[in-house]
Amino acid sequence: MTRRLRHALLVLAALVAVGGGYALLVPAPQQATAQTGQTQIDQGRALYERACISCHGANLQGAPGRGPGLVGVGDAAVYFQVSTGRMPLARSEDRGYRKDPQPQFDPDTEQGRANLAALGAYIQANGGGPTTPAETGPELIGSDVAHGGELYRLNCASCHHFTGRGGILADGRYPPRLEAATPEQMYTAMLSGPMAMPVFSDRQLTPEEKKDIIAYVLAVRGQNNAPGGFTLGELGPAAEGLVAFVVGLVALVGVAAWIGARS
Q1: Does the annotation place 161 within a ligand binding site?
Q2: The Cytochrome c domain covers which part of the protein (predicted)?
Q3: pTM for the complete prediction?
Q4: Is 16 a member of any domain?
């Protein structure tokens, strides 16, 4: 009996040791995280089927004449397009200009942020692409405004004007004004390159450089950029050059007419 009892105690001790080791090596929170991730993707699929499938197709490959494919655009493109109200379109012929986002995707509400994250997770899980940064709000604002200004003038001012007031490009394209863009929207726009905007990967602009550009845009908001003069619509060199050309041409014609009258 003593020997049998000793063997039973040894077996029990071995079972306890194996169970404790398993609990340490495979903790429950990891399983819960994986389940939550799949639940988020499933929620994003449901949102996609309600709001996006008619234009972008059941398999994200796009629909001819309605919308492009979304394979590879990534979570960053989803956040920018949907949080700024550019998508979903009310009608297929609408242009993707900034407007109030749908209430279910409003980034200012907790439910809207959750839906944006879920929709982005579904798109990300089906093709990959650039992802929305983990930082939010003030964490995306850099500390070197002067450096951000240099980078902005080099990479952004030709389209968005020197202070983010937008501008005019060829073929009727219109770079948007940046006065309402949040740090998250500016960062994801640089990652995803919407419309005519180029993509700025982390090799072209490091995360810190992107944050410095955001700091510059925020720093020049609300400034009076035409002290003692005319704003000319604040459309940048295109409008200024046109006004200079018209004024100069009228002046030349006037001078020529005056010389002809004198002679």
Answers
A1: no
A2: 39-221
A3: 0.73
A4: no
Domain CATH code at residue 199: 1.10.760.10
156 labeled part of a ligand binding site: yes
Cα(138)–Cα(135) distance, rounded to whole angstroms?
8
* Domain count within the chain: 2
Task: Confirm whether residue 160 is marked as ligand binding.
Answer: yes
Q: Which residues of 228-262 are buried (b: 16+ CB within 10 A; e: fewer)?
A: eeeeeebbbeebeeeeeeeeeeeeeeeeeeeeeee
Number of Cβ within a 10 Å radius of residue 147: 16
Q: How many residues does the chain have?
A: 263
Strand partners, 63: 67
Is 52 annotated in a binding site? The answer is yes
Instruction: For residue range 109-167, list pLDDT tens digits in order.
Output: 999 999 999 999 999 999 899 999 999 999 999 999 999 999 999 999 888 888 888 76
